[in-house]
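Weekly modeling sync, notes
Attendees: S.R. (lead), two postdocs, one rotation student

Agenda item 3: backlog of single-chain predictions. S.R. asked that every request posted to the team notebook include the full sequence so nobody has to chase files. The rotation student volunteered to paste the first one in as an example of the format we agreed on. Action items at the bottom.

Example entry:
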Amino acid sequence: MAFVNKSGGEGEEESTDVAAGAPPVFDLDFDPNDPAQVKVHYNLTGWTLDQRAELAETLAEHGVPHAWDGDELVVPEQIEEPVDRLLDVLEAEIGPFPVPLFDDDPSTEFGLDEWPIADLENLKASLIEAEIPHRWERATLFVATDAEVVVDDLLDAIENGEVASLDDSQAPDGALHDLFTAVEKLRRDPTNSSSRERLLALMPELSPSAPPYGLAAGTWVTIVAAGNELVAAYERSAETDELKAAAEQLHAVCRPWV
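Predicted structure, as returned to the notebook:
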């Protein structure tokens, strides 16, 4: 989700309860210039014009009280949860969205003036897909310092032609996210039946030669191999400690990309 922070207010604000999954109902006055009003800011730096237009249409359809402050969408705190859900729905439909890197954030710089346009487009998509905080200044890329190693590997993979493009055969949509969600639970509780079944159903659909769009082929081979190791551990009815170790390994190789 887009970067979020809060501003304003003089103490606790009353919240408006909205049942999960229910259509949001907004019946409140909102003055973005009122210093006593607690406001939530969603930074939408990097959203395309089409994505912003879709958001504006969605806000209008639901009657969401809001204001704009540059690239930030501003809403009253009382409706933060339902607005979060609207943005989650939008992200599933028209995302993923870039995670912005701000001027005062620790960053690492990569000069890419000599890169061909096709590789730059592949890199842009990969950074968004991996949810790596970043910003562009012409052909210079700035990324969050704690993502420097991951991005360095990604740049090498793109230069070596090891990153999937839109023309390549790819893993099913959301495969990496689904795999990570399952193993996130299994590393804590290998007996979790729903996550185990999810893993066992997903792994046969994954080919080491068909990575998700924007992911390095070598990285995907490692992820699929770790997933198959965990499946094999289940099939031979391994002990709990062995299952946990295999799940931890799969979690570790997935985590930088989710």
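Discussion: group reviewed the output briefly. Confidence is low (pLDDT under 50) at residues 11-23.
Action items: rotation student to repeat for the remaining queue; S.R. to check formatting next week.
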